[in-house]
Write a structure and sequence with these properties.
This protein is α/β, with parallel strands linked by helices. The chain is built from nine helices and twelve strands. Helix 3 packs parallel to helix 4, helix 6 packs across helix 7 and helix 8 packs parallel to helix 9.
Length: 290
């Protein structure tokens, strides 16, 4: 089944930037675009219309207008709209399940860490079964110019990062861009070494050569599948979030993996995804691990 690219819109500047990004990506990948707005009835005290049908009509009109701006720019693009009754998180997670990717707006940089993506965006990222792309309000098509890379974080074994690398290479192939694959490493505590791991490190010639071999092994199937995509292998000692952000200046898109962490106060995204989402200047794609 061919899935569309879905953009969640709410009329804000951020969501319209996300819609424009999603439309360009849909054209590149030759996919349809679905525009979704989650709508919930607001009582008279909140909004000046007590009739649910009137409020629903406003929502449909706003989504239709947003879709028309896209079709004017991309007349060849197949665009559909959907106004979904209910909470934003549930509606967007359900939309993501039926999409190639879900694209949302992000409020951009600010002084208070933890409030840049927004509570709805964070919950959707945690729950969505498909990649979620966050786009900032100031994002322009010029940021996708030639020479700017798709930066992707790789960690663990090849199977651990397969979906993340797949997304990065598919995006690069659609854009004619290059991929910079980043693997960060740190010195593990002495008690973490086992006889087996020590043997592997010894065979590899040390920690850094071992990490380089691990990155090359993870990239090999994707290099073979996408031979026309130039690849730069980047292995650096440091925290994954810091290393990724150090190369973000040349990125047109940052791709990171996500494992949801369940806590007493709810699900949280990992520290790497959290840091990149809050501090990278380019759009960020968060891809669930298989």
């Amino acid at each position: 089944m061919t899935r569309p690219i879905t953009a969640g819109v709410d009329g804000s500047e951020e969501s319209l930037a996300a819609l424009a990004w999603a439309a360009r990506e849909a054209v590149r990948r030759r996919l349809a675009l679905r525009v979704v707005h989650a709508w919930r009835f607001q009582p008279y005290e909140v909004i000046e219309a007590a009739d649910p049908e009137v409020q629903a009509g406003w929502a449909k009109e706003a989504v239709g207008e947003a879709a028309r701006t896209v079709t004017e720019r991309h007349p060849e693009l197949e665009v559909s709209t959907d106004v979904v009754a209910g909470g934003s998180v549930d509606a967007l997670v359900a939309a993501a399940a039926e999409a190639e990717m879900l694209v949302l707006g992000s409020r951009g940089h600010g002084p208070v860490v933890g409030f840049l993506v927004g509570s709805v965006g964070q919950q959707v990222i945690v729950e969505a079964p498909r990649p979620v792309v966050l786009v900032r309000s100031g994002d322009k098509a010029s940021g996708e110019a030639a020479g700017r890379e798709i930066v992707v974080g790789q960690q663990g074994d090849p199977e651990d990062s397969a979906e993340v690398l797949r997304f990065a290479f598919e995006t690069a192939a659609a854009r004619g861009a290059s991929v910079r694959a980043v693997r960060a490493w740190t010195l593990p505590p002495v008690f973490a070494y086992s006889p087996g791991s020590l043997r592997l490190l010894d065979e590899a010639g040390g920690l850094e050569p071992y990490e380089k071999k691990a990155l090359s092994a993870a990239l090999e199937p994707w290099r073979n599948r996408f031979p026309d995509v130039p690849v730069t292998e980047h292995v650096e000692m440091g925290s994954a979030g810091q290393v990724l952000l150090s190369v973000a200046g040349a990125a047109q898109l940052m791709v990171v993996g996500r494992r949801a962490h369940r806590t007493a106060v709810g699900a949280r995204i990992g520290s790497v995804a959290h840091g990149v989402l809050h501090h990278a200047g380019c759009p960020v794609a968060v891809v669930p691990h298989a």
